[in-house]
Batch of 2 targets.
Target 1
Amino acid sequence: DAKTTQPPSMDCAEGRAANLPCNHSTISGNEYVYWYRQIHSQGPQYIIHGLKNNETNEMASLIITEDRKSSTLILPHATLRDTAVYYCIVRVGLGGANSKLTFGKGITLSVRP
Amino acid sequence: SAVISQKPSRDICQRGTSLTIQCQVDSQVTMMFWYRQQPGQSLTLIATANQGSEATYESGFVIDKFPISRPNLTFSTLTVSNMSPEDSSIYLCSVSSGGTDTQYFGPGTRLTVL
């Protein structure tokens, strides 16, 4: 069973911030939150991950609630090229065989001109 | 992050035949994985490719249908055997290695079985 719940789709205007929600109410203390995206059947692209602190990199910001039961991926200035399926995944961060990822259906983000 | 290539990028095959997909990484990695993405679906893990030993298969996938090799730390192959139209999918390899253990994906192989 998927450990995360995401809305099936959302859209935003180009240049605006895109806030993608994810619920992971059963997350364990040693599980990380990972975000990937897949643009038109290309291989999934890693975006960002976090454990409990908010994280930011050149692509996005990840905001994790204090109870860790939900998170939000923020694309600060969405462009048309950000149109993709975004996957929120929780995963034990111990490496080895635990590295495998379980993908849900993701959320389809459509950025409109 | 590692640069991952897959060959072929796409192929059209006849039912009953087999196809071997190659995954090459530009640096040594600890873990290599194979995923399948059926049309309109999300990714499903087929197996973990283990260097020097038999692959570890997920429920619903068997070695006879999807034999996997991993002769070294930079290369792996996945064979789709005795293909049927239901095997038409995108097949993706991914790798992870030490540190943060983040997993990175190859570009995928789009397989169509007629």
Target 2
Amino acid sequence: EVQLVESGGGLVQPGGSLRLSCAASGFTLSTYWMHWVRQTPGQGLVWLSRIGGDDGSSTSYADSVRGRFTISRDNAKNTLYLQMDSLRVEDTGVYYCARSVVSTANDLRYWGQGSLVTVSA
Amino acid sequence: DIQMTQSPSSLSASVGDRVTITCRASQSISSYLNWYQQTPGKAPKVLIYEASNLQSGVPPRFSGSGIGTHFTLTINSLQPEDFATYYCQQTYRSPPAFGQGTKVEIK
């Protein structure tokens, strides 16, 4: 069974940093494109970043987080990460990791339960 | 980037009603479209993939159709557990993009 469990969320001041983790089980992380998606309070879903390739060297980011957020993964631990630096109030929200399917890199078929990040002074 | 536009943004319906939600893409995405359902406090859940394929375990009262730029999600005989927010998402090209959501409320 595919399972994704996020952790690492919490309260951080503007300008601070936080690292989210997404522990995967039931499949091998490196086989699939993995994504991070954010949902701000009362708002919709916004795609943030993705990672793929055997060595995880293929990455891309939304304009809103490029240069501040870094996606990575540890194949040995089967865990996905999102390093978030220079956080802003508008980064507040629930962060989901999601897994694709083999045939379509952007088909977000499986989701974690989400991790809440609050950026506030 | 491809933009996704859903309509309506919200609707009120009764148990047993048939509901239709529309999603339009700013350019052709072939059949590369997913529909998700989200209830409060939960992660989105895939209902339909590739525009018209029912995800395993999803009740057959849900159906999807469309190709190119115009897509619809239909819920036949709305059930109490179907009151939720529904999102479309194009899976055709990066960056993946979601519609703004349609909230289905109880009339």
